[in-house]
Design brief:
The protein starts with 5 loop residues before the first helix and ends with a helix. With about 500 residues, it is an alpha+beta fold. It is built from 11 helices and 21 strands.
């Protein structure tokens, strides 16, 4: 019986005198084997064309017209053996419109046992892709269509159907025609989406891909750590960064005016932007200062009736040491006048050491100063500092204590931080900030108990970091460094203060 469909005849007509080639790549036992199957259909098609029917007195001709068209060759997924009927398309190496040559890679498919790279048998342009990544491709179905650019003769529709009775005895022709047509026909399918860039060139073994599929992981999003970017099992096991939780604000936004202290700070810090800052940082060993402070506190504990405070902190020692260092470096106690114009700018050297202390009050930052530190003892400074601290807690620092500061010291380290970046105000030329105190290991020369010689040992020492900022318009770095060293020497050896009393 003649059972070839019209599409089958059209396929045969387009391939008259042509040869159909099917190529694929096969991986068996870890080795890739390329093979090709060539089926010549010219004789078969010619034989089909010559079959004509004499029905009564009329002769019915099969093909009566032809036209020219470009060849679009469907590339079929060939049988890769071992009874496999379908494979999963795991990645495309090409997209629609790409130029390919013979043996160029088209895609990679994976069966239950191996992954195989499919290569092209034709040279041409990819006309369409028939499957998306992740689809199951049936063996014998087209993977892609390749436009070779060749011009072939396409026959027109048959003039009239042939009666079945006239093809009796020619069953072998019908079977051959149906076989070739089944091989060449492309099933109707929806438009296939072109693979995106992330679905191309993702290297991984079948076992890794299986684990990714079981865990619903998009393997194209994983950065491979193996050779050539190959995705390994360890890459899949790496935890993904947690997604940021959406912040849901509570309440409503509001706009409030600046407080009086904030306005003053805003104005002063804006002016400070005109000052080029020079920074300098160092560390001070507090072992001797700790012992000196302990002696003072022991004295206060024995004579509580003489003092309105119970303990001395490190700050009075720092402040008095600054005053001692200012005797040798008075420029650090100066101020710049008429600094807007270099031709009229001048320095005012101030005799009083009015050292300001930054305080964190309920209303914000306040910097009262202790007047005439050069004339005060450490215990006198401690008394003044205690008075200012009590006034600050009540937001009742007198204006007289906020005026005429000459040098400032911040002790923000009691909150935290090591090296800091304080800001110089326009009425001064320098400011220091003290960081938090730490007990750290340091190398030190000590006397050996057995030999009596000096040997180097690692000992624990109490240190504090100090950060300086200075007005670089009038203070150079060497001056800041020498001044800091002079201050440091007094802090590290506070018993020298006794020899400086008048």
């Amino acid at each position: 019986m003649f059972s070839a469909t019209r599409s089958s005849l059209n396929v045969l007509k387009t391939r008259v005198g042509q040869s159909t080639y099917i190529s694929t790549a096969r991986m068996i036992s870890g080795q890739r084997l390329k093979y090709s199957i060539s089926t010549k259909t010219s004789a078969l098609c010619s034989k089909a064309v010559r079959q004509h029917t004499i029905y009564g007195a009329n002769r019915v001709q099969r093909f009566h017209a032809s036209a020219l068209s470009n060849a679009k060759l469907p590339f079929l997924l060939a049988d890769i053996g071992e009874g496999i009927t379908e494979c999963e398309v795991i990645q495309w190496f090409v997209k629609t419109g790409d130029k390919v040559e013979e043996f160029d890679r088209l895609c990679e498919v994976q069966s239950d046992k191996a992954s195989v790279e499919i290569t092209s048998r034709f040279t041409g342009t990819i006309a369409s892709l028939k499957y998306k990544v992740g689809d199951m491709a049936k063996v014998g179905s087209p993977l892609v269509e390749i436009e070779t650019g060749e011009v072939v003769e396409e026959a027109a529709e048959p003039a009239a159907p042939a009666p079945e009775d006239n093809l009796k005895g020619r069953s072998h022709v019908v079977q051959d025609m149906n076989a070739v047509a089944a091989m060449m026909d492309t099933p109707a399918a929806a438009k296939i989406e072109t693979p995106t860039a992330e679905h191309i060139l993702t290297f991984a073994t079948p076992a890794v891909r299986r684990v990714a599929k079981e865990n619903s992981v998009d393997i194209s999003l994983i950065k491979g750590s193996g050779k050539g970017g190959r995705v390994m099992k360890e890459d899949e096991a790496a935890p993904a960064p947690p997604a940021a939780k959406a912040f849901i604000p509570r309440g409503e936004d509001k706009v409030v005016p600046l407080s009086m202290i904030q306005k003053a700070m805003f104005k002063q810090m804006t002016k400070s932007l005109s000052i080029p800052h020079f920074g300098f940082a160092d560390e001070i060993i507090l072992d001797n200062a700790t012992a000196f402070r302990a002696s003072l506190n022991a004295h206060i504990a024995k004579n509580p009736e003489k003092y309105k405070f119970k303990k001395v902190s490190y700050m009075p020692i720092f402040i008095k040491a600054l005053s001692v260092a200012l005797e040798d470096y008075p420029i650090l106690n100066a101020r710049v006048l008429d600094g807007e114009d270099p031709s009229t700018a001048k320095l005012q050297y101030r005799a009083s050491h009015n050292i300001g202390v930054a305080m964190d009050t309920p209303n914000g930052l306040m910097v009262p100063n202790i007047k005439n530190v050069q004339s005060l003892s450490v215990l006198d400074i401690a008394a003044e500092l205690a008075r200012l601290q009590e006034a600050g807690k009540k937001n009742a620092i007198p204006m007289a204590d906020l005026r005429d500061g000459t040098l400032s010291l911040s002790n923000v380290g009691n909150i935290g931080g090591t090296y800091l970046n304080p800001v110089v105000v326009t009425s001064e030329v320098a400011i220091a900030a003290v960081g938090k105190m730490q007990r750290v290991p340091r190398f030190k020369m000590v006397e050996d108990e057995k030999t009596g010689k000096q040997v180097e040992q690692v000992v624990a020492q109490q240190i504090v970091n100090v950060s300086w900022s200075a007005d670089h318009r009038v203070i150079d770095g060497a001056t800041v460094a020498r001044f800091s060293e002079a201050w440091k020497s007094v802090v590290e050896n506070p018993f020298l203060l006794g020899g400086m009393l008048r």
